[in-house]
Amino acid sequence: MERHTQSVTDHYRRDGLAEIIREALAKDGKDLDNLTIDDLAPVDEFHTRGREATVELAEFAGIEPGMRVVDVGSGLGGPARYLAQTYGCTVAGVDLSEEFCRTATMLAEMTGLADKVSFQHASALDMPFEDASFDLAWTVQIQMNIADKARFYGEIFRVLEPGGRFVFQDILQGPGGPIRVPTPWASEPGMNFLYSPAKLSDLLTDVGFEQIEWRDRTDAHREWYDHQPEATGKPMPKLSIHLVLGPEAGEKRRNTRQNLLEDRIAYVQAILCKPD
Ligand SMILES: C[S@@+](CC[C@H](N)C(=O)[O-])C[C@H]1O[C@@H](n2cnc3c(N)ncnc32)[C@H](O)[C@@H]1O
User: Fold this and answer.
1) Would the CB of 193 count as within 6 Å of ligand 1?
2) Which of 144-163 are b and which e, b meaning 16 or more Cβ less than 10 Å from the residue's Cβ?
3) Phi and psi, residue 47, nearest 5°
4) Which of the listed residues 64, 66, 145, 258 has the most CB atoms within 10 Å of its CB?
5) Model pLDDT, residue 46
């Protein structure tokens, strides 16, 4: 385990999250006996641009029915359930937060997807899977917390089949200087480990990946934030990612927008391949 692993766990800790989400869903008028993945999308897609980004990334990746997918840093499982329901994939998620895994499992049961998705409490740096277990590795906005990036991407490489694809959306260092904190992924600067796009691209090549596509999506994320409560001044809906972000939610999101406006962060989506 990395030295700062405990601070990452503490940062994401939300005691009683599963119950908090259940209550919020009920208050919002959702039918808990017939819950859909769309009911959950405002609260279980724990990354910038939410469901919109998941749909976009899945189309970009060329996901095919029946693929065996590993979601590295699966959070509350929103993307995993989307891939399972939309494409018929089997998705295995791992996450450092035990509470997130428990909540993700409850939400999978409530949406009738428990036979297609599973969530294990484990570190991305030491995944509980055999070599070459998956056709596709998917990760969305977790490596910002990980200092040992060679090991992180090496683990992803290891669990992929030769010929398997690796797709990600991630936050990288922009040219505008050090980020403002707190953000949704870091309470203080010591939890933030951003590489520039060029440095990450070089590392992935060193790990052994072949790059298939690489695209900057910073503008799309900046535009999305222009329509969010942080920009419009409208109140945040009661059923929203604020439930997961905790008491500093407003400040974390305002800082993310500001980091985007000041070019301190960049968003990249990419597809890579483990050579045969
Ligand atoms: C911003 S959330 C993204 C969650 C999910 N990928 C999504 O898009 O909905 C970041 C997640 O990374 C997880 N995480 C951070 N470091 C990790 C590690 N070393 N191993 C596994 N999960 C980690 C956190 O617990 C958290 O759930």
Assistant:
1) no
2) bbbbebebbbebbbbbbbee
3) -165, 165
4) 145
5) 98
78 ligand 1 Cβ < 6 A: yes
Q: Which residues of the chain have pLDDT under 50?
A: 1
Is 185 near ligand 1, meaning CB less than 6 Å away? yes
Its pTM surpasses 0.70: yes
pLDDT at 3 (0 to 100): 57
Domain interval for residue 188: 5-273
H helices of 28-148, in order, are 37-44, 50-61, 78-87, 98-110
CATH of the domain at 148: 3.40.50.150
- C-alpha span between 273 and 103 (Å, rounded): 31
* Minimum-distance ligand 1 atom for the alpha carbon of 54: 8
Cβ atoms of 94 and 127 within 8 Å: the answer is yes
Relative to beta strand 134-140, strand 160-173 is parallel
Predicted confidence (pLDDT) per residue in 7-16, tens digit: 899 999 999 9
Whether the CB-CB separation of 51 and 80 falls below 8 Å is answered with: no
Domain total in the chain:
1
The DSSP output letter for 210 is E
Residue-wise pLDDT tens digits, 33-84 = 999 999 999 999 999 999 999 999 999 999 999 999 999 999 999 999 999 9
Enumerate residues 6+ apart whose C-beta is below 8 A from 27: 238, 239
**Residue 76 phi/psi, 5° resolution?**
-90, 0
